[in-house]
Amino acid sequence: MAEFDVDAILADTNTRLAAEYVQAFGDYLVAVVLRNAPQTRDARLRLEEVVRESMGRAEVLGALSSLRAASGVIADDPATAAAFSIAPGSSGLTGAACRGQLLAFADTSAEKVLSRVTFAEALEDLVDRVPVTLRNTAERISGRIAELYAADGGVIAFANSAEAAVTQRARELITKGVREGIPEREIGRTIAFDVNRIRRETEAWTESYARMAFRTNLNDAVSQGRIRTAQDPDVKIAIPAFRFTAIGDGDTRPNHKAADGVILSVDNPAWRWLRSPLGYNCRCGIDNMSRPLLRRMGRLDAAGNVVESKIPFNARPDEGFRPGGGP
Hints:
- With 327 residues, this protein is mostly helical.
- It has 2 domains: 6-238, no CATH class; 240-327, no CATH class.
- Helix content is 64%, strand content 4%.
- It is built from 15 helices and 3 strands.
- Strands 2-1-3 form a 3-stranded antiparallel β-sheet.
- α3 crosses α4 and α3 packs antiparallel against α8 (135-151).
């Protein structure tokens, strides 16, 4: 089964989405330095919207990844197909024509989800592109993603984190102005006439921080989309587990490397904190573990349940990155 390269999409920091991150961070930082309350409020709202749009689309991309993987397994493995055909809420399999539909879906590119459509359009695309066999599943998943991003939980958490970073950087710029002999009470009025100066002096930081945030947050959203989708009863029949995979080169952090190869069922609560990324700019990922693959590896017990790995004690997120399993 062909698979789109999620990592390549996340690494492409020249996309329109990445540029929107940089612009939103830059506007927010300028507003904070100028101490302009209405401008700061508007800039934060814009930042939240950029994050919501990009992370929502990334979660849809992750959901499509799991759906495509499941469709390939259902089409190719008779035992999985038989279980799926009688699953509650599934429309069942209808022979060779349906198998062809599933395989065609498994080979369909979904990269346009991130770059060419809005979040709302991506949700519609998620339902429209799947074969009828998976339509009920896709509708459930689409509704769940829409509900999550309407609540703004992850978006607000990220915006709060961004606010702290931006405020610290703004404070450094204000301190520099004071050292140059500008009274602190005059800082906002003095440099308000030279916004270009603020942008010049903060450009490198803004670019670096925004692109790091872009990759890290989209990576997290893709992982969450994959996991949430695989937890759907229909998809879980085909993809009952994930395996954590670290790059394993000299730049791989020890706590990330310790998690390499860990196999857990999709419902294991450890995925709340063990999913990739485990830190900023993390390059790790999670692999779909299909039922046929687990069977060949001897990782299914007599009842068909996943034989899970024991999580090494030092396999964990970076310090302070995901406290309590949150974003």
